[in-house]
Amino acid sequence: MVKGSVRAPRNPGGSWAYRIDLPAVRGQERRQVQVGGFVSEADARVALADALVEYDSDRPVRRAPDTVGGFLTDRWQRGIRQEVAESALSNYVSIVSTYVVPRIGDVRLSRLSTRQVEQLYVDLLAGGARDGGPLSATTVGQVHRTLRRAFNDAIRWGLLNASPVTPAKVPRQDGRTMTVWTPAQSVAFLASVRGDRLFALWLVALHTGIRRGELAGLRWRDVDLVSGKVSIVVQRTTDGYRVVTVEPKAGSRRVVQLAADVTAQVRAHRDRQAVERAALGLDGAGPDDAVFADEFGRPFHPQRLRRMFGRASERAGLPAIRLHDLRHTMATTALTAGIHPKIVQERLGHTTVAMTLDTYSHVTDTIQSAAAEELHRIMNPSERGPVIGESLEETPEALRAAAKPFAPRKRKHRRPTAADEVFVKSINE
């Protein structure tokens, strides 16, 4: 019986391969056959199994052509498992199984047309929700992005020459309404939770815009209480309800500066945490222990933080917003206060300033209006008071009043010398 094995990539970014050991035939030595180019270990093992059957039965295995459903639920998921975070993969699985496979799963992968993709979007908009009602354009947009990623991967793996998804017309996205607190409401919330054992968490969230998973994953080794700097290098997120610890989103690894008062509150929080741990018979918090832990010294489940924030804001009598909206509140407050967008981008962990400005366009519109009025005021002296840094005595009116009348300077004439008289006499002669 022929045997084989699978080999991992030899270099970063390399491909998987399988090897088959063939028995000696007619006195020849044993030989090996190696085939590579597989995206994942799973793909290599499937191909190895087919090859072993072919060699043992001496006839080729005819596998059924991929359908859209078969590709999306099996081959694609196995191929990207090592490339995306668990939470992202879980989201892909949910979208595919809920919205795509029940409608176009039986279509041959190579036969799917752009018209069928667009019809899928129309059907989802009309009745794609779980209860049979209309599905929002935002969710349909997520379906489109998932299919675009999947079919681009199919092209990358040599399964297709072109994607039917790329040219498909995507429904217009719903206008996103961002709910944030005003500065006065933020102050009222902090006053309400000042006695809370997690006061430092709410303070850090409002001052830095750190995401929920980043707050839950923050360790003491990531906090420098001397310089007041917080390093965002890990986050605790969820796959369903299961907690997974992963790196932050692409480009979101960053260092965030805390204000002196916020740093002092985090330091006080550490001291209170040490007392709690001692009462539980635990040693002091180590470098890998959570900065924000529950009553038993364990890291918080991210969804528990969400529920706790909801109860805290309700007790404060404030409009209901999500914990994630504290991030938007920080960014909106900072931009409105005139803090440079580049600084806001770095604190949020956005990849570009353009992303920050696009996300908070409702704020930038206000800033644009204020800038236009200020420029008009500066450029029209008759309609303005003194510019900042300009004293009252330096205004155009004051300068005109203080100016002296112009008087031409009288020229002084010197008396002719003996040499001048000789020169004039020579000319006259």
What would you say this structure looks like, in words?
The chain is mainly alpha-helical and 429 residues long. It is 48% helix and 9% strand. It contains 16 helices and 8 strands. The strands form 3 sheets. It has a 3-stranded antiparallel sheet, covered by helices on one side. A hairpin with an 8-residue loop joins strand 1 and strand 2.
Terminal residue distance: 137 Å
Mean residue pLDDT: 83
- Residues in β-strands, percent: 5-15%
Order of helices and strands: EEEHHHHHHHHEEEEEHHHHHHHH
Keywords:
429 residues; mainly alpha; 3-stranded antiparallel beta sheet; 9% strand
Map the helices and strands.
Blueprint (H helix, E strand, L loop, with lengths): L2 E5 L8 E7 L8 E8 L2 H17 L10 H13 L5 H19 L9 H14 L9 H20 L26 H10 L6 H10 L3 H6 L5 E2 L4 E4 L2 E5 L2 E5 L7 E4 L2 H20 L22 H14 L9 H12 L4 H8 L4 H7 L1 H19 L16 H7 L15 H11 L1
Helix pairs in contact: 2-3, 3-5, 7-9, 7-11, 12-13, 13-14
